Task: structure prediction
Amino acid sequence: MLSPILLCALVCLAQQPAQTPAQTPPEPKPVDVHAEHPARPLFLANCAQCHGETGDGQGTTKLDRQARSFQDGGFSYGNTPEALVRTITYGIPGSPMPSFEKALALEQRKQLAEYVLLLGPVQEKTDAKDSVMVVKDRPLVVRGKLPPVVEGGPEFPRGLLIGTPEGLSFEYRTDDVRLLAVRNGEFADRADWRGRGGDALVPLGKTVHVRESGSDDWIFARFGALSRRQMRASEVLGGAGRLRYELLDPSGKHVANVLETPTAFTCSAGAGYARRFEIDPGVPDPQSALASHEVHGALAELKLRRGLASPRANVLVLEEITLPGVLWPADAAGQKKLMDSFLAEAKR
Result:
């Protein structure tokens, strides 16, 4: 016979509800620890579509390549507040990153840069090398040996870099003056200053556009057969870096003088660059204009080549504007609207 105490214990156990297996709680959604930052609404309105609401690069806009994750840090075009403000202001040529110079006030761009830095890991402060050159409010022009523009390509013993305050670097060979590539980000490291010298000048920006051979034929073909473009001088004047060179025919005879001025260019369609040519002597051609586009996946390269009004009767003035990579709409109506907008802003 069961004792009264054991009987009571069995009754209590029988009255208890059956135990269900423990369930694993769902993983919490990512939390923005900086949700109260004043730039949070700006980030959601202007950046989250591509970079995600938490800056993880998982935005709703479909891109060929995933947008940068701000949580990872390590920005390609500089991770200082100044560099990020510059990127937000002028955009990144060759990418879907547009310019916000007109859309956002300077103070808003500064707040956005601060917020984006907070989304990533803590940055360790490092001192810049004495040989690293920084472009501030005035262009810089430096000469030296340049490394290959593409892997496996040739070095250029006689090279030149023009850096702009907008963060672009124009990379030229000067033995036969030609634009090789355009970079975006930090400017240059004069590695040739260190040790015994002989090292190449190191462009620090990321390549956003490589010029193809013959891409300047539309400018110079009208002057007939040419042997080369001979460098004469480089200068910074009127807030722009400029090159002066001359065109020589196969016999070495002088054909014309050229003043070339490369600058940054931004519009609502995207970021890019412009080159202006003043050729003396030359026949002015202010009515000529040719717009083109070349599609690469979800992006397109937009280009406008045109003649401009000339200050003198014997000077030819030409301009080329290039947007290396903008988001290309899928429908014909959107494509036409994009091209019309680009041309309207380029011709202002």
Summary: The longest strand covers residues 254-267. Residues 226 and 249 are 4 Å apart (CA to CA). Residues 40-119 form a domain with the Cytochrome Bc1 Complex; Chain D, domain 2 fold (CATH 1.10.760.10).
